[in-house]
Amino acid sequence: MGKRVVIALGGNAILQPQQEATYDNQFKNVISATRHMVEIKEAGHKIVITHGNGPQVGNIIAQNEAAKNVVEPLPIHVCNAESQGFIGYMMETALKNHIKERGITSNVVTLLTMVEVDKDDQAFKNPTKPIGVFFSEEEAQRLERQGFTMAEDAGRGYRRVVPSPEPKVIHGIDEIQRLMDETIVISSGGGGIPVYRKDSGQIHGIEAVIDKDRSGLKLAQQVNAEVFMMLTDVPNVYINFGKENEQKLSHITVAEAEQYVAEGQFPAGSMLPKMQAAIEFAKLGKESIICSLDQAVAALDGKAGTRITK
């Protein structure tokens, strides 16, 4: 019996570190990644795919900044929509080609997805999410005088930082649930397009970036998924990573996972948000999986990856 699975793919799987940001490079990576997703569908599961967009939206913002004297730069929420569109286009194309080659009876649809946040979220008082290109200290000071919030980033220079509010509602959930029984759905890319409601109830975009793992968790909760699967470039989660007593985690409970988080076992910029999202989903009595792309089908069978359950 197939499971309802939300699959979260990182943006670095689409554009790898140090790789030139050409369309051809990204599309080749997408072709490889989606081949494994079709294997999940072929195994009988119902899937919704969400994806990161960190490198892609950063490059779109860099293009905006480079051309600002010619074309008015676009707001961040519009840049997010752009990245959703072109990544979704690549993924849908690759998935449809894989499906045709394998003779699978299914379709694919990409949904441009808004994700609602609270305009009074505390994140708007403390922007922390770095985006876009690096600047010198002098350039950063100039941008701060223009009203931007800038921060030093790991000794590499200064970057603009924006709020990263908590996702409250994924828009279009009813449609996603209806479609996913027969169709592969791509939704909520890059954490979703951040929007909020005015007191009148009208929807407006807002300058923010939503964490993709938190948004993927919300998506999994709202579509009533049985499994929330986060695909990474490592086969398992590890404790004491890189040390002599390094240990691979295969199946752990929520209590064990929370203990490892409390010990500081996971880096804040990479595995920690995944583990936090996995714990929250597993608390619902469901299953969270963190694994590599090529082991996704085996992980769903309990034969690979790291599984977190209640």
TrEMBL record:
**Entry's Pfam families?**
AA_kinase (PF00696)
InterPro entries in the record, alphabetically? AceGlu_kinase-like_sf (IPR036393), Asp/Glu/Uridylate_kinase (IPR001048), Carb_kinase (IPR003964)
The UniProt keyword set, sorted, is: Arginine metabolism, Kinase, Transferase
Per the record, what are the reactions this protein catalyses? hydrogencarbonate + NH4(+) + ATP = carbamoyl phosphate + ADP + H2O + H(+)
**SUPFAM superfamilies recorded for this chain?**
Carbamate kinase-like (SSF53633)
Report the domain of life of the source organism. Answer: Bacteria
Give yes or no: UniProt keyword Kinase.
yes
So, what pathway does this thing act in?
Metabolic intermediate metabolism; carbamoyl phosphate degradation; CO(2) and NH(3) from carbamoyl phosphate: step 1/1
Q: Is Phosphoprotein one of the keywords? A: no
Q: Where is the Aspartate/glutamate/uridylate kinase domain?
A: 3-290
Q: Which GO terms describe its molecular function?
A: carbamate kinase activity
Give the family, as the similarity comment puts it. Answer: Belongs to the carbamate kinase family.
UniProt protein name: Carbamate kinase
